[in-house]
Amino acid sequence: MLRSFFSYLAKANWARKMVMGWSVAWRMASRFIAGETIPDAIRAIQALNQKGINATLDHLGENTATPEDARKAMQDILDVLDAIQRAGVRANVSIKLSQIGLNLDHNLCLEILEKILAKAKLSGNFIRIDMEDSAVTQITLDALVEMRKRGYSNVGVVIQSYLFRSDEDIKKLIEQNIPVRLCKGAYLEPASVAYPLKKDVDIAYDRLADMLLTASAEENRPRLSADGRFPPLPGLATHDEKRINHAKQMIEKLGLTKNGVEFQMLLGIRRELQEQLAKEGYAVRVYVPYGTEWYPYFMRRLAERPANVWFILLNFFRR
Fold it and tell me: Which residues are known catalytic residues?
């Protein structure tokens, strides 16, 4: 029920205008978002790097409305790559295809995606294509494969464990040696394509993590690069300690080196756990979002953490 409500709010313009006008909403959002500018984001990454934690930088935005907006998003991403290079931080970049025109013009989206990958390749960096709702899962994977065919090996993708199709998708990605960020999934999906119960999503997550970890234990699989920009084959994106402990047991069983896997988390969530894993010697990467288009991302974080909703409501009525 909560996820349905916030999925609706994430797309409602009236709610966007109202919530973004509340100073308390930004104060809460700023826990999960580095700021609205590139310098804000770089400072957040530098603080993480000082703790031995790598980052993925994301200029927030999705579902652009015009080709001009898509090209503007492209330029913002190119600027991010330049900023990472200048600052010398241990970070790569995450993008959404709907941000660069997927819902407007497929060819335009591919054109922009290739320009981003070319820029990243030139600067020695990696691009992670984020996964959106199930309506575009296959389109996203097709775009990924097309870019790999064009010679761009500096690109990976996100797979969501709550989708029924993810077992087959993971198998194909492993065969092609494509780095995968495995998450549970944050979009509202019908029961025809996704597990509706958390326990089934968790079981699927562990199963898919085992597949990725087993593959990573083999020779010639992607490893974390020395500069922290290129990830290993599995990026396990979760704040769930049961999932993390399951993965750690599998890592030990396989004798997998710690640069063969990466635990990934979100900025502002389970900071103590992020730092503990890094102290234990595991590769840790934190997703660092920034920009003015923070509203949809914030709504998804609220859906995951009901306590945040009460905080905002209490402060709203105290105004």
Answer: 130, 181
